[in-house]
Amino acid sequence: MDLESLAAVRESALDYFERSRALQRRRERMERPGGDEAEGWQDIAALGWSGMLAPESAGGLALGLDGMAEIFRAAGEHAAPEPLLAVAGLGALLLARLGTPGANALLAELVAGRSLPALAWQESAGDLSAVPLACGCEPRPGGGVLLQGEKLMVLPGAAASGWLVSARGDDDAVLLWVPRGTSGVIETPVPLVDGSQASNLRFEQAVLPAGAVLADGPAAQEALRHALAAGQILQSAELLGAGQAMLAQTLAYLRTRSQFGKPIGSFQALQHRCVDMFIHLEVAKATLDEVLALAAQGLPAQRLEAEASRVNARCTAAALQASRASVQLHGAIGYTQECDLSLFYKRVLCLSAWLGNVSAHQRRHSVLSGDADAAPGVAEWNGGFPSTADWSAMPEADFRRMVRAFLQQRYPQQLRYLSHRARWSEMREWYLMLSAQGWIAPAWPQSHGGMGLPADKLIAWIEELEQYGVARAPDQGIVMIGPLLIQHGTAEQQQRFLPCILSGEHVWCQGYSEPNAGSDLAGLRTEAMPARDAQGEHFIVNGQKIWTTLAQDANHIFMLVRTDKDARKQEGISFLLCDLRTPGITIRPIHTLAGEPEFCEVFFDNVRVPAANLVGKLHGGWSIAKALLGFERIFLGSPKQSQYALGQLARLAQARRLFADPVFAQRFAALRLDVLDLSAAYTGFANIVRAGKPLPASVSLLKIWASETYHRIGALLVEAGEEQGAVAGDQVLDGQTFNVLSPLIGSTAAMIYGGTNEIQRNILARQVLDLPV
């Protein structure tokens, strides 16, 4: 569905749940457990939601999974008591997928609201397998079928009209319809913490007619796998909605609740807790959007299951984190049944335990994704390496093979997996090779000499380079000043500077931070005084910049300078471009924790800068600075560093056979999903840049998630290295250089530069969550 249609579906769902007092009905269900869960189901059927995914020929809405997800997210935001997931989700998904005469007849009853079939598939706690283990059926001598076995956690409980049962036949899986009242069916009610009810079923020689068999063999197995996977995706949407509702309630509470004469939402400790809730939920939403888009392509069962586990693990973790944090931030009232949070808290507990928990889905994703951590083999590619192409039209698999083959043929082997920040002297030849190929600026528009990659291909580009161990060249011109000039520079500035960036003639560094003006960027004191002489208008610059990455390798710097000492902090700043070869400039390297001269101090002593190098208006540099900070944060939020570090961790794990350790395997699986979902979030912001729109303040979440994921990977790498975690310098692993400490030390800096993560949280708290000062 298009965005406008999805928004309409969402608004309609929110309106229904509001009008139908969904939250109040959930409370009534909690206070009177054992009530009729079928109550109000006719209203759901009247809306068409009982057949959301059913084809129109069966009276359904044929919404598609993305449309259904909007309804389920709205249900989560209102803690809706209807058994939507069990019936309109799992039951309808299975029957629609089967398409057999018996299944179609049951689907018609479900769509009409006359039947609430419950899927009975699980046989042991925590099992995610769609393969029936013990529950079996066999033909009766006189016709029909005998069913024997047990099923656990069948929802809905007493409201179910009957059960869609998976069983093991003589040769393969069988799907059966068992109406309520069938002899030999013993049902044990299981009250759930959110006021709803499940059932455990025991079939003791239950006699069924031959028509009870809905499907068997591979068709039955495939339909069940698809239904469960799609149901887990819809469950993710409901969990996301619940988490978003709890965040909204918490923000409203913090804005109005006062202590010590101030709104408690002004307390930084509480603001940062809210920001973390927001970040987890936003990453979850990005993951859900990506998985829904993938599912719409018609994935095979195993791939759909893997993606379902990925999004379910992410949304479950985000909702659980939101539920725990929101109760804490509400204080004592949050611990009471009277507070509406209790309804969401308990609903999340139920959803997070049913259809697989976080750890189970992390493990399943790792298994179903295959040996993705192994190094790729030699790429088979005979299509050449075009400088320009319609990259959007190229299938992603072909694009990846092309990039992989190019790297294997062209990238210098001695530069793979560098443990330090690459210097220009090391990377110059590679930079020039990419430039000659036309691939040096993958995200730039083709009209300015870039590749113009769409967001999905840009992510693929990043992943292939990181997986192959390609070092990062000094690239501030490509990733920062180039995009800024494309948006804000004059035509003359674009013509003068952009080709020199692409060719490698100009190597750039950034001049923002100053002593005592790091995160407080507006506190800078480097002055640029306008002047005029026989050579024309210019600025005279005096002052100092610090933490300037690889300034010793650069020949140009873009910087913020104060051009009006009497104006308010942000209003007297301008944005200048400067040739570092100009007289009066001194550069002094600073060594990092790793012993590398990665940063520099840059001193300006009466440095003459042409007025033509002013970007934007005089004294208007703050708006330019914020635009550049957006580019910097999306760059710092790139999955590059985390993917590289994860590849290093995988190399070490394979060499030491650590994947055989279930504890390590679980931690690695979680980190791998953190990186995958970072890519999903990054894609959304990259699309904003490609559309030429300004980046919102929420881009700060990317920088936080990326750097902290990078740090977690680095910490596990050092732990997995054991004694090697104390070894200084490079080591050798499988014939390539390897440094156990490099990612941890690098990630420590990543949480500081570009505005510390604490500053980013402050930005999100004030500018996105609107918490009081």
Can you describe what's shown?
With 773 residues, the chain is of the alpha+beta class. The chain contains 22 helices and 20 strands. Strands 1-4-5-8 form a four-stranded mixed sheet. It is elongated and about 105 Å long. The model has no long low-confidence stretch (mean pLDDT 91).
For the structure shown, list the relevant keywords:
773 residues, alpha+beta, 4-stranded mixed β-sheet, 4-stranded antiparallel β-sheet, 20 strands, elongated
The quaternary organization reads as single chain
The largest beta-sheet arranges its strands as 1-4-5-8
Q: Average pLDDT value?
A: 91
Which parts are unreliable, with pLDDT below 50 for 5 consecutive residues or more? none
Straight-line N-to-C gap:
40 Å
Task: Provide a count of the helices.
Answer: 22
Fraction of residues in β-strands: 15-25%
The rough form would be described as: elongated
Report the biggest beta sheet as strand number plus sense, adding barrel if it closes.
4 strands, mixed
Topology:
Elements: H1 3-19, H2 22-31, H3 41-47, H4 65-77, H5 85-98, H6 101-111, E1 117-120, E2 136-139, E3 145-154, E4 162-168, E5 173-179, E6 185-191, E7 197-208, E8 213-216, H7 217-256, E9 258-259, E10 262-263, H8 268-295, H9 301-330, H10 341-353, H11 358-368, H12 396-410, H13 424-437, H14 455-468, H15 476-488, H16 491-503, E11 508-511, E12 527-533, E13 536-545, E14 556-562, E15 573-579, E16 585-590, E17 599-610, E18 614-615, H17 621-636, H18 640-656, H19 662-690, H20 700-721, E19 731-733, E20 736-738, H21 742-750, H22 757-768
Parallel strand pairs: 1-4, 11-14
Antiparallel strand pairs: 2-3, 3-7, 4-5, 5-8, 6-7, 9-10, 12-13, 13-17, 14-15, 15-18, 16-17, 19-20
Helix pairs in contact: 1-4, 4-7, 5-6, 5-7, 7-8, 7-9, 7-10, 8-9, 8-19, 8-22, 9-10, 9-11, 11-19, 12-14, 14-18, 14-19, 15-16, 15-17, 17-20, 18-19, 18-20, 19-20, 20-21, 20-22
